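Table S4 entry, Diguanylate cyclase (GGDEF) domain-containing protein.
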Amino acid sequence: MNDIQCPTTGLPAGSALEKAIQNLVEHNTSNGWILFIHVDRIEYINTFYTRKEGDETLYRIAQILSRIESSHLYRFAGPIFVMTLTGNTAKALDVAEQLRRAVGDSTELIENLTVSIGLVAADEAESAMKIQDIALDRLKTARRRGGNTICAISHSDEDSEYSSKTVLLVDPESDMLTVLIREIENKGFSVITAQDGLEALQVVSQISPDVIISELTVPKLGGFELRARLRQSEELGAIPFVLLSHRWNDELIREASSLRILHYHQKPLSAVHIAELVKNLAVGRFREEESGCV
């Protein structure tokens, strides 16, 4: 990892961040804290405005976060910043809340944005890499709670294997899919619904679900266009995408294939089959690029 300065935000990055975390681990184990901060909905800015505006937004957020005293701010990757500080637990939680409010209440941004935060004490692990893994796991949990939240506790080993995983169901008739929702939830997943494609795009950019299930003919932004928009982002385009529709013909199958939609199912469908598919996709038991259309 190179010791570099982020060209977008001007913040230190690379090995400077790794050294800062390792220093806390080695010398400040009783009062060192690491906060991983994710800018929610930044992909929405990149998609509906421009990538340049997205970078400018990250720069502005870096300025907002830098105003917190007695802390050090770094750029990690993508929409993630890292802050290190020393103090007791109350101070760490207070700083995290200050960060959350500072961004959420800001009038300096092109859209109302929020941040999700994963908080880790330096004495929770013996290496910077392990601290990073714990922080990213908590950050993921905070995002799946809907964003704009702080997570300072890891999931218990007693939790369901899929309790931290989320499925987004995009269908204006989602109330008619209660059997499917129940089958998915019975496997331990959380299910979030969206009534149209634009709502789905905003939800995805905020919580990054593990699997997306979309009806083809949803309002405002159809299933194909939703998939095309998501593919503009490497991160969001990698989310497994399952398409459902009463319509089924060679032309639609070819279009789905061109968008790398590898799971296209005709209604009426088997809720059990789709729930099992979701489980396999979510845990990565097979890769989409190695699968064929179903």
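DSSP finds eleven helices and twelve strands in the chain.
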